[in-house]
Amino acid sequence: xxxxxxxxxxxxxxxxxxxxxxxxxxxxxxxxxxxxxxxxxxxxxxxxxxxxxxxxxxxx
Length: 60
Description:
Elements: H1 3-8, E1 19-21, E2 26-29, E3 34-39, E4 42-43, E5 51-52
Antiparallel strand pairs: 1-2, 2-3, 3-4, 3-5
């Protein structure tokens, strides 16, 4: 994923910054503890597509 593209993307719920998890191909919102999947290079930025991070998942 292009770094410049990542800089302009924000969480659709809280408008906070997102972090890229390359290994899981997800964009992480620390504030809402949600992970938005990236499928075929396209971020799925819908709340219905996001998964909640488990309490034991460390958000860096």
